[in-house]
Amino acid sequence: MSNSSLKSEYKLAVVGVLSLLSAIFMMWQLSATTNELDKIFREQESQYDFMLNTIRESREKQ
User: Fold this and answer.
1) Cα(first)–Cα(last) distance of the chain, in Å?
2) What share of the chain is helix, strand, coil (3-state, %, to 5)?
3) How far apart are CA 1 and CA 31, in angstroms?
4) Buried b (16+ CB within 10 A) or exposed e, 3-27
5) Three-state SS for 39?
6) For position 5, what pLDDT does the model report?
7) Among 26, 34, 35, 60, which residue has the least CB neighbours within 10 Å?
8) What is the pLDDT of residues 8-56, one digit of tens each?
């Protein structure tokens, strides 16, 4: 194999590894974002349940 061919394959391997690391990082970020959104959704859901329960209790008292 020629020297330029090895350099080309080396560059291709480096680009492939960097692309893989980038994809792993993006998946990690997406997972973290999903976890944060899930936490926010659960908080909103509990607040909504509290409001519904309060409305039901006030209607039962009337």
Assistant:
1) 89
2) 95, 0, 5
3) 43
4) eeeeeeeeeeeeeeeeeeeeeeeee
5) helix
6) 86
7) 60
8) 999 999 999 999 999 999 999 999 999 999 999 999 999 999 999 999 9
Instruction: Give the 3-state secondary structure of residue 62.
Output: coil
Query: What does the block give as tokens for 24?
Result: 């792993």
Residue type, 43: E
- Residues 62 and 57: their CA atoms lie apart, in Å, by 9
Q: Which residue type sits at 6? A: L
DSSP class of residue 54?
H
| Residue position matching structure tokens 């080309």 | 8
Can you read off the two tokens belonging to residue 33? 């974002």
* Distance from C-alpha of 6 to C-alpha of 12, rounded to nearest angstrom: 10
